[in-house]
Structures are given as C-alpha cells and as structure tokens.
Design a protein that fits this description.
Two copies of one chain form a homodimer. Chain A has three helices and no strands. The first copy, chain A, has 93 residues and is mainly alpha-helical. The interface between A and B is large, with 46 and 46 residues.
Amino acid sequence: MSDNGDLARYRSSIDNLDAALIHLLAERFKLTQEVGAYKAAHNMPAADPAREKEQIARLRKLATEAHLDPDFAEKLLNFIISEVIRHHTAMRG
Amino acid sequence: MSDNGDLARYRSSIDNLDAALIHLLAERFKLTQEVGAYKAAHNMPAADPAREKEQIARLRKLATEAHLDPDFAEKLLNFIISEVIRHHTAMRG
C-alpha cells in the first residue's frame, strides 16, 4: 500500500506539471497568433526556417542543461511549430 | 521598424515560454522515470490505458478552459506519453 502511495504521489505531481504545461502552451498560442496576424498583414511566409533553426539550437542546449533528451525537445518543438504553421496557413484561407 | 519591434517582442516572449516548457518537461521526465522504475520493479505493464484516458479527459478540459485547442492538447499529450512508454520499455531491455 505504501508502494502504491508512491505511484499515486508521482502521478499527482505529473498532473500538476501537465496543467502548468497546458497553461504555458495556451499563452504560447496567443503569441503565435499575434505573430501569424503580423505575418499575414505584412505578406510574410508562415514558416521561417532561419528562426526555427535558432529556436531548435537554443532549446537543444537548454534541454541538455536540464538533463532532458535534446532529441525529444527538438521533436516536440517541431510538433508544436507544425501546428502553429497549420494555424497560420489557415488564417490566410 | 516599430512593426518589426512587435515581432521581436512576441518572439522574445515565445522564447521565454519555451524555456519554461523545457524545464517543466525535464521535471516531468524525472517523475515518469520514477514511475517507470516502480512499474518495472512491480512487473506492471509500461502502458496504462485507464490512466491515459483520465489524463486526456482532464487535459482536454483544462485546455478548453485556457482557450487552447483541446485536440492539440490531446495530440501533444499522446506524443509525450509515447516517448515515455518508449523509455519505460527500454528500461526493461
């Protein structure tokens, strides 16, 4: 029963972190919507490979310092960016 | 130039949120590693569909409240969980 208590405690902390992640992502999408509106107004392309390259290099470095697998961090950022680009493209009809 | 200042300001905030996301994910993986060790020690399967179903329902609700697309939140959680399960499976050789 004390072992099961460990599992329940880990899961409770995971749930708290997940709630924090959701709220940070909600704020992140508000910002990328602003970026999307800006790009659409200025006829800039939805994707920006140079910016993405910088973001990936920076996040890989931060991940390594935080002992998170940098490949996972990169895959996750690519996943988020592809969703953002999908939104930006949709904004132009 | 002031418009470009807007873009730079959005991106600076996105970069701050991304750094926070990376650090939360690093903590999340520490916890799922503990869960993985616990499951391996107790011969429990790496995946737990009932737990995942609960997590997804909760995060979809939180996402909706935070004005984040719940489908995106679910896809992202599935992406993270599949990485965690890959790690758990690897821990058993």
